Automatic annotation (TrEMBL):
Belongs to the inositol monophosphatase superfamily. Mg(2+) binds at residues 64, 80, 82-83, 207. It is an enzyme of class 3 (hydrolase). PANTHER family: INOSITOL MONOPHOSPHATASE, INOSITOL-1-MONOPHOSPHATASE-RELATED. Its cofactor is Mg(2+). It holds the Pfam family Inositol_P. Its EC number is 3.1.3.25. Keywords: Hydrolase, Magnesium, Metal-binding. It comes from Paracoccus hibiscisoli. This is Inositol-1-monophosphatase. GO terms for biological process: inositol metabolic process; signal transduction.
Amino acid sequence: MLDVLVPLAREAGALALSHFGRLSDGAVSAKGPLDLVTIADRAVEALITARLRAAFPQDGILGEEDGLTPGTSGRVWVVDPIDGTFNFVRGGRQWAVSIGLWQDGVPMLGVIHAPALDLTLTGGRGHPPQINGRLLAPLTAHAPDRAAVGVGLGRAVPAPERMEMLRFLTQDAGIMIRCCNATTISLIELALGEVDGHVGFGESAWDVMGAWPILTALGAVSTMDGAAMPLSGPMRFVIGKPGLVQACRPLFADIGP
């Protein structure tokens, strides 16, 4: 599968790059407050969908922009054509193409490509995690005295709950927070050891499906372990090093195992 997915992610990234820094006002529209979509998002998703449908005709496809096209195999490809569209529009480099394979509630395989950062990560069940063709080292032990976590603050979660999450992390748990406004990039930072975890309040399946199987193969755990990952609806979770996840578990007492 990776022989199809890696070239596809890079082709999609090249298409996105052809629009990067060249968007006219008419090429950008709003789906909601601070939630943008561009002609690049739609073109990249159309490309990925067409290639996946040709290579895996029995599989379903879920795209951020076009929704779910069911298949007959029980497998679903989950696509975020440009995760970090706001950054993309503003000229920031923190955005990525994400393709993940979901089966029976489990993220099985992922490819994420951040073309502006020249990073391609792959991995999942039966596929050791790699970055730009080199094996990634497993996650190291958690060091509480210098803990850092990426955060995602989806608007689907009420503002008071988002603010309480930030208060808990910075005051109660004593964890440095980072927010790059692109979940896939935050999860890449976790894979590279730049942070110890990611706390998501309101992410969707397409935000995480490409990176999730890579991270679990590196030794990450989460508050969603043991439960099926949904394809619809906003999610709340923490994923990362076991010690970091344990420190954040009070935020998820009502949903975690």
